[in-house]
Amino acid sequence: MGAPSTLRSARPGERWVVRVRRPDGSATDLVGWLLDADGRTLRLQGPLDPTSDDEAPVWAVALDDVVVARRAPQARGGPAPSRTAPDLLEHLAVEAWAVDLEPLGGWWLRSASGFTGRANSCLAVGDPGLPVAEAAARVRAYAAAHAIPPLAQVVTGSTEDAALQELGWRETYVATDVLAVRLADLLGDHEPDPRVAVDEELTPSWRATYDSYRPHDTDPALVTRLLEGRAPRAYGSVGTEEGLVAVGRGHLSGGWLGVAALWTRPDHRRQGLATAVMYGLGRWAARRDARWCYLQVDAANAGAHAAYERLGFTLHHRYRYLAPAAD
């Protein structure tokens, strides 16, 4: 039996569904990314299990045993991103951008020497396990102990938002929109860009580019801890002879890819480099069985919203920061 004609156009890196006949006459479906193929055999690599240290499975399949084959979406499908509750997504994202974490019931106290609001606020989402007034006092005490301003990150319009406002806490900073998309919809039929590199370890060049993007006077070792964070995470980039000109960071949790620190040097903008980096991180996540992608955008940044909407992102929820009234 010859191989299905659909395989003639197969290219390495594409995701395929291949039905293979077993020796007993039954058949099984294999889903994975094509590594290579010759005239007799093809090799597929299955997804990595992000909760395991095992390597991704690789299947060698004789072409004569292939019953049918079809090209598959670049990532698994799934329910609409809106089916994930805001509280759950916020808890999945908590380790994506954190240095020190301390639980307060279902809330999280966070500190990172004041570098970024998200890493230095209490994620006040869920049940703190004690009256909100007592929880608010704990937030203030934790902030004082870590020499950071007391802040609570709340989902806009949530019961936690209302309860803290009843205690006199008020909005500070501009609100943030969390945008989301199915990873398969984001990646679509876009081919891998050979200019994009994705590393699972933080490199000196990526770190130096990030510092150009976000200048700071924070202890460099602490910023490194924040960027390295908790695995699995990856660092996408595009480089030229001048060095890296576009970067982005991805973090994977619960089937969700969180993209942050997406930046292009000003003299290389409007060339699609940031989008290419995002696609590269998306492919990395898809091979780890991710199904959705989210990112966070300043609610007032109309330009960024328009750009992400063109990529298929829609509003999932909004969050904001509350601070207690001055004593």
Can you characterise this structure?
With 327 residues, the chain is of the alpha+beta class. The chain folds into three domains: 5-71, Roll (SH3 type barrels); 81-175, no CATH class; 179-316, Gcn5-related N-acetyltransferase (GNAT) (Aminopeptidase). Helices cover 23% and strands 34% of the residues. The chain has helices spanning 86-92, 132-145, 159-166, 183-187, 204-213, 220-228, 273-286, 302-310, and strands at 15-21, 27-37, 41-45, 58-62, 66-71, 100-104, 107-111, 122-123, 152-155, 170-182, 196-199, 233-240, 243-253, 256-264, 292-298, 314-323. It has a nine-stranded mixed sheet with strand order 8-9-16-10-15-14-13-12-11, sandwiched between helices. The longest helix is centred in the middle third of the chain and has 14 residues, at 132-145. The model has no long low-confidence stretch (mean pLDDT 94). Keywords: Transferase. It comes from Microlunatus sagamiharensis. One of its GO terms (molecular function) is acyltransferase activity, transferring groups other than amino-acyl groups. This is Acetyltransferase (GNAT) family protein. Residues 193-327 form the N-acetyltransferase domain.
